[in-house]
Amino acid sequence: MRDVGYTIEKIVPLPEFDRVQGYGLNNQGHVVGDSYTSYTDALGSGRAFFWSSGTEPEELRSFGDNSRALAINDLGDVVGWAEEQRRTGLGADDEENYSVPVLWVGDRRRIPCTVPFRLAEKASGSALALNNRREVLGTPDSRWRVSGNSMKHQRLAPPPLPKGHRFKPTGINSEGTIVGFSCRPAQNPMSGETEHQAWICLRGRWKRLAPEAKNSAALGLNDRNELVGWVAPMGANSKRLPMLWRETAPHPLGEQEGVARAINVHGAIVGYTRRDGRGWACLWQDGQLVVLESRLPTGTKLPLYDATALNDKGQILASGAYLLTPIN
């Protein structure tokens, strides 16, 4: 692998916020995520945004005060969730917050359209992943097919899960292959242990990945049915190791602790490796591991703890707020 350097561009927060967290990146270099205030932390109230290089982020309208955009396809469609209040009784305080799965539809004149489309009227959940055929996956166990202004919902038949597990899809490619993981909350909340199992639905059939591992998760895939994630051979609190699967065949990415999060059509993989008490955003390519901080412009002192997304042009979303573009 030849040494490749990167230019780096910071994504600034929306007005009235001071933090930003990007989640999705498409092949046009567009980024989606949420902007929030540091004192509420990343799980607090925030606003979904869309961003493209050289511009200010644009807020994606939602139904309430809290929203998050999680994925974007090459058509400019964006999915995520928005929080709204619903009445549960007749009293003044009889209201609860619900998370609603949302689609912001791509538009040739305006990518994406900032008007949200509610994917479910009553169910509480989130839209998590989509492909370029406008197939959307979400929770709980939901699948939508969008065509023009119409939408068809169908139940996503989950894998054969152990008792107490819930399935979370993390990706769907243009062939309709689905990946994700199931999880069961800790039986002892004080331990913090959670069981995870990696799954793939390939040509309509579910198969568990890494069945020999105590814990595993599949986090991303490309259109060649190559997928990435992690395995923890010794259990929930043991060291996580980055993993590549080609369809269902495992190909470990080394023995150094870390997580592989995304893979592009060329087989490049991003995620993080852990050493010296911290995470380091990294790239795996051609059998080599590269720490991305080492490929920034000379004199740049910027800690990059994780890389969460990667497109087919080699652009990388790092630490949730920086777009790295390879220098040709």
Sum up the structure in keywords.
Putative membrane protein, four-stranded antiparallel beta sheet, 28 strands, mainly beta, single chain
Structure description:
The chain has strands spanning 6-10, 19-25, 31-36, 46-51, 58-59, 66-72, 78-87, 95-104, 116-118, 126-130, 135-139, 142-147, 150-155, 166-172, 178-184, 195-202, 205-208, 215-221, 226-232, 241-246, 249-252, 258-263, 269-275, 278-285, 288-291, 307-310, 316-318, 322-326. The strands form seven sheets. The protein has a four-stranded antiparallel beta sheet, with no helix packed on it. A four-stranded antiparallel beta sheet has the order 2-3-4-5, with no helix packed on it. Helices cover 0% and strands 50% of the residues. It is mostly beta strands and 328 residues long.
Percent helix range:
under 10%
SSE succession = EEEEEEEEEEEEEEEEEEEEEEEEEEEE
Work out the number of β strands: 28
Characterize the overall form: globular
Distance between the amino and carboxyl termini: 14 Å
Mean pLDDT: 89
User: Any low-confidence stretches, pLDDT <50, length ≥5?
Assistant: none
Number of helices: 0
Strand order of the largest sheet: 1-28-27-26
Sheet with most strands: 4 strands, antiparallel
Supply the helix-strand structural class: mainly beta
Strand content: over 45%
Q: Give the radius of gyration.
A: 19 Å
Organism: Armatimonas rosea
Protein name: Putative membrane protein
